[in-house]
Fold this protein.
Amino acid sequence: MNIHTYEKIWLGAAMVLIVGFIATITYGAVGPGIAMVDDDGGDITPSEINDDERFAEPGVEHVGGNEYEVAVVAQAWSYSPDQIEVPSNSEVTFYVTSRDVTHSFSVVGTNVNTMVIPGQVSEMTVRFDDPGEYGILCNEYCGERHHTMEGLLTVVPEDEFDLTELDVEAPDEVEAGNETTINATVSDGMQTDLETTVTLEIGDQQYDEDVTIEGAGSESVEFAVDTDELGAGDHDWTVSVEDEEESDTLTVVDGNGGSDGGDGDA
């Protein structure tokens, strides 16, 4: 059978298009490092989300090496957390569930785009090589404020990323002449040890304490503050470690209950 030259050209072009479509779909599915959604995420009762180890405090967790897990709870009309930060050159697995109705979790610019159904946990894995920002959107209509349901995923350089947390306990008021303490607890969310310095600045005084925190552990630092050196009055303080800091005010009062150091005469 003799096939006309133009028919051969069209047949060839059609074959090229078919191969191109298959290659595009294949790359979109596995090329960027995406694991397609399946039922591996498991089930969860929406009313028990707050009691679940993974979703009680949703956020980023370092699981070792360059691998991270992010737990996200969708609810009308927000995500928790709505601001997510992960390092570049990392593989991130998202676990997302819904507290109320069906939502979606879509990370713009990636293949992360899945329905989030109450009672189920959606699981997706994606690799982020370069720093950048990605919007998070809900593509499933979930009520009158559906259009406001959004978040932000920020990929930062590896050397700028940490999972350090700081918790400070300090008195609001202390009597002059008494030594007081400000206690800082530093938690390291990474699986690797952290060597860092905790700093307290109060008045014109500065205290520094070097600490080593084991991976996924925490350490407490106690700063002894001499109120006589501070003097009566209000003194702003700041405790800082890595990129975290907490601030407040310590009031030093004199023996008569005043904070201005006066003798109390009218």
